[in-house]
C-alpha cells in the first residue's frame, strides 16, 4: 500500500467539509445545518442514538444520499466524485454469504469489480490483494471461502477489499457491532495501524465509543437533528454525552490515564438531564465555538 | 398391481438414435450451459425464489399463447421477460421479498390454469408446460437455444466483474460506481431467457431443480466462481443426458429422472460436505 498524498496537500484541504448540509427522507428532516470540517489524517467517530442519521451521513458523504440543502465536499471534491479513493465497509459484511468466493477473490473485486469487459487478473493486482490482506492480518486466509469465515474475519476481508484500491479515506459503518471482544480489539488495532502508518483518514459509525477512544481524534455527534464536529477532548464531556445518548453518562479517567464512558449511577439523574431547549442550543454553540 | 410395470426396455439404443433424441441431447447441452452459468449468480444474489417465480409468471404467457395459437415459447418468454423487468426495476431487495414474490407466483399459476381451460388445445399443452417435454423440441427451437447461449456468454463476458461485485455487496459496488440498477435488470432479463429455454426440458414446476440445484451443488464442490459455473453446467448436462438415457431404458418421464439426478447430486454433495465438516 502506498501513500500517494503529501502532507502539504493534506494540510491544505480538510478531508470532509460540510456547509449548511441537510438531508430529508420524504418530508422528514433527518438532520440539518451541518457545517463543520473534518481534518485529513484524523480518526473520527459518528455518534448518536439510533435513528439520528449516522449511516445516512456516511451515505451523503459518498454521494449516495442526496442533500436537500447545502454541500458536502470530500477529499476536495463534491461528495461522490472521489469515491475511487474512498474505502467503504458497510455493516452488511456480517450477513451470511451464499457465494463460494474466496477471501482473495473478494478482495480483488475491490480493484477490478467495476471493470466491464474481459480482464484476466494480473500478477500486480494479485500482489496488491495479498498486500492488503497481509496488512489486516488475514494473509493465511486468502484461500478460505467467505462462507467459512467468522464475522470478524469477514469484516477484515471487507476492510482489505476497501484498502486494496489505496484509499485516502476509509469509512466503516458499525465495524464493532456483532463482534466479540477480541475481534473488536483486533479491528481497532488494524484501524490504528492504517492511520499511523499510512496516514489514512478514518471515519467510523459507532454507538459504543469505549473501544475506539484510544485512537479517536474527534467525533461528529448527531444531537437534536444537527450534526457537529468536535475534537476529542470536547466530546468527552459527561454533559454532552448524557444528552447524546439520552441517558446519564459519566466519563471516567483511571489513574493510568485511560478514559471510559460509563452509564451514570442511576438511569436518569435529574440534575444532569433537565436542561431546557434554550440551554441545549447554547450548549451547541459552545461546542461549535470551541473548535 | 397389473397397471404399473417398471420393465427394462432392451431396445433403448434404437430409441436413443431417433432424430427427436438427437434434438433432445443438443437441447440439453444448450440448457446446461445457460442454466449452469446463471445458476451461480442467482444463488450469489440470493434471488433463487425470484428466478423460480419467473417460470410461473411465464405460465399464463405460455398457455395464453397456446390459446391464441401462437408459439408457446414466445408467450412464455414475453411474460417471463415482463416479470423480470418489473422485479429488476424494483431492485435486488425486491427480488428477496418472498411474500410478494410468492403471491404473484400463485396468482400467475392460477391465471395460467384459467387460460389453459379456455380451449382444449391449450389444455392439452398444459401438462407439457408444467412438467416439460424435452422429447418434442423442434430444430427451430434448438437454433433459438443456441443463439441465446451465444448472446448470454457474450453479455456475461462483458458484465462479469461488475455483476459479481454487485452480487457480493451491492452497497460497496454502488459506492465504487457500479450501475447496480442496470446490473439488476440485466440479471433478471437474462434469467427470463434461461427460464424460457429451460422450461421445455423440465417444465415450470421443476425448473428449480435444473437451474438452482446444480449451481448449489457446484458451490459446495468448486472453489471459484468460474469453476463453480463450469461444474454446475456439467452437473446439469449429466442430469439431462442421464435423464434421456434412463428414460429410454425405463418407462419413466425424462423430467422426473432429470430432477431426481439433480437432487441426488446435491444430496450426496451436502452429505459428503457435512461428513467432512465433522
From TrEMBL, chain A:
CDD domains: ABC_Metallic_Cations (cd03235)
GO MF, any single term: ATP binding
Signal peptide residues on this chain, from the entry's feature table: none
Keyword list, A-Z: ATP-binding, Nucleotide-binding, Transport
Pfam family, one: ABC_tran
Domain ABC transporter: 16-249
PROSITE patterns: ABC_TRANSPORTER_1, ABC_TRANSPORTER_2
InterPro entries: AAA+_ATPase (IPR003593), ABC_transporter-like_ATP-bd (IPR003439), ABC_transporter-like_CS (IPR017871), Metal_Ion_Import_ABC (IPR050153)
Keyword flag Nucleotide-binding: yes
Annotated region described as Disordered, given as residue ranges: 264-291
Family assignment from sequence similarity: Belongs to the ABC transporter superfamily.
Stated name of the protein: ABC transporter ATP-binding protein
Species of origin: Bifidobacterium phasiani
Lineage: Bacteria, Bacillati, Actinomycetota, Actinomycetes, Bifidobacteriales
UniProtKB/TrEMBL annotation, chain B:
Pfam families according to UniProt: ABC-3 (PF00950)
Designated name of the protein: Metal ABC transporter permease
Coiled-coil segments on the chain, per record: none
Organism: Bifidobacterium phasiani
UniProt keyword annotation of Transmembrane helix present: yes
Membrane-spanning parts: 20-43, 64-87, 99-118, 130-160, 185-216, 228-250, 256-275
Cited PANTHER family: ABC-TRANSPORTER METAL-BINDING PROTEIN, METAL TRANSPORT SYSTEM MEMBRANE PROTEIN TM_0125-RELATED
Family: Belongs to the ABC-3 integral membrane protein family.
Keywords, comma-separated and alphabetical: Membrane, Transmembrane, Transmembrane helix, Transport
Subcellular location: Cell membrane
Entry membrane topology: Multi-pass membrane protein
Matching InterPro entries: ABC_TroCD (IPR001626)
Amino acid at each position: 500500500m502506498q501513500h500517494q498524498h503529501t502532507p502539504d496537500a493534506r494540510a491544505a484541504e480538510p478531508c470532509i467539509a460540510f456547509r449548511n448540509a441537510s438531508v430529508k427522507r420524504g418530508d422528514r428532516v433527518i438532520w440539518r445545518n451541518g457545517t463543520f470540517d473534518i481534518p485529513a489524517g484524523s480518526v473520527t467517530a459518528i455518534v448518536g442514538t439510533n435513528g439520528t442519521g449516522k449511516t445516512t451521513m456516511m451515505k451523503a458523504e459518498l454521494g449516495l444520499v442526496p442533500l436537500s440543502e447545502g454541500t458536502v465536499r470530500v477529499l476536495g471534491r463534491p461528495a461522490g466524485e472521489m469515491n475511487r479513493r474512498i474505502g467503504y465497509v458497510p455493516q452488511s459484511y456480517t450477513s451470511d454469504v451464499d457465494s463460494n468466493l474466496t477471501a482473495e477473490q473478494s478482495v480483488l473485486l475491490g480493484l477490478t469489480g467495476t471493470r466491464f469487459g474481459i480482464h484476466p487478473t494480473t500478477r500486480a493486482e494479485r500482489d496488491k490483494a495479498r498486500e492488503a490482506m497481509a496488512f489486516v492480518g488475514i494473509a493465511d486466509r486468502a484461500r478460505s471461502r467467505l462462507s467459512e469465515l467468522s464475522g470478524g474475519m469477514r469484516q477484515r476481508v471487507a476492510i482489505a477489499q476497501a484498502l486494496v484500491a489505496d484509499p485516502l479515506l476509509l469509512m466503516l459503518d458499525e465495524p464493532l457491532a456483532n463482534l466479540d471482544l477480541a475481534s473488536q480489539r483486533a479491528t481497532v488495532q488494524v484501524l490504528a495501524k492504517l492511520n499511523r502508518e499510512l496516514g489514512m483518514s478514518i471515519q467510523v459509525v459507532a454507538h459504543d465509543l469505549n473501544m475506539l477512544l484510544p485512537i479517536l481524534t474527534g467525533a461528529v455527534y448527531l444531537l437534536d437533528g444537527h450534526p457537529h464536529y468536535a475534537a476529542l477532548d470536547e466530546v468527552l464531556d459527561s454533559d454532552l454525552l448524557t444528552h447524546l445518548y439520552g441517558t446519564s453518562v459519566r466519563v471516567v479517567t483511571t489513574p493510568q490515564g485511560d478514559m471510559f464512558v460509563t452509564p451514570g449511577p442511576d438511569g436518569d439523574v435529574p440534575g444532569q438531564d433537565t436542561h431546557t431547549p434554550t440551554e441545549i442550543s447554547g450548549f451547541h454553540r459552545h461546542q461549535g465555538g470551541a473548535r | 398391481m397389473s397397471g404399473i410395470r417398471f420393465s427394462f426396455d432392451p431396445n433403448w439404443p434404437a430409441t436413443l438414435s431417433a432424430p427427436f433424441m438427437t434434438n433432445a441431447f443438443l437441447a440439453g447441452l444448450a440448457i446446461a450451459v445457460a442454466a449452469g452459468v446463471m445458476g451461480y449468480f442467482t444463488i450469489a444474489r440470493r434471488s433463487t425464489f425470484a428466478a423460480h417465480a419467473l417460470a410461473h409468471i411465464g405460465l399464463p404467457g405460455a398457455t395464453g399463447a397456446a390459446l391464441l395459437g401462437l408459439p408457446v415459447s414466445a408467450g412464455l418468454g414475453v411474460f417471463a421477460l415482463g416479470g423480470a423487468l418489473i422485479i429488476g426495476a424494483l431492485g435486488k431487495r425486491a427480488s428477496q421479498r418472498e411474500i410478494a414474490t410468492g403471491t404473484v407466483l400463485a396468482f400467475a399459476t392460477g391465471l395460467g390454469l384459467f387460460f389453459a381451460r379456455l380451449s382444449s388445445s391449450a389444455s392439452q399443452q398444459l401438462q407439457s408446460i408444467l412438467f416439460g417435454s424435452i422429447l418434442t423440441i423442434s430444430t427451430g427451437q434448438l437454433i433459438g437455444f443456441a443463439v441465446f447461449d451465444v448472446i448470454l456468454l457474450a453479455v456475461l463476458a462483458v458484465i462479469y466483474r461488475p455483476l459479481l461485485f454487485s452480487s457480493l455487496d451491492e452497497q460497496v459496488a454502488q459506492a465504487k460506481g457500479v450501475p447496480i440498477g442496470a446490473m439488476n435488470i440485466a440479471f433478471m432479463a437474462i434469467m427470463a431467457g434461461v427460464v424460457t429455454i429451460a422450461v421445455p426440458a423440465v417444465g415450470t414446476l421443476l425448473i428449480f431443480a435444473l437451474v438452482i440445484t446444480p449451481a448449489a451443488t457446484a458451490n459446495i464442490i468448486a472453489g471459484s466462481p468460474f469453476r463453480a459455473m463450469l461444474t454446475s453446467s456439467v452437473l446439469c448436462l449429466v442430469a439431462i443426458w442421464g435423464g434421456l438415457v434412463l428414460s429410454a431404458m425405463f418407462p419413466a418421464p425424462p423430467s422426473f429422472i432429470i430432477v431426481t439426478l439433480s437432487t441426488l447430486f446435491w444430496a450426496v454433495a451436502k452429505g459428503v460436505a457435512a461428513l467432512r465438516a465433522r
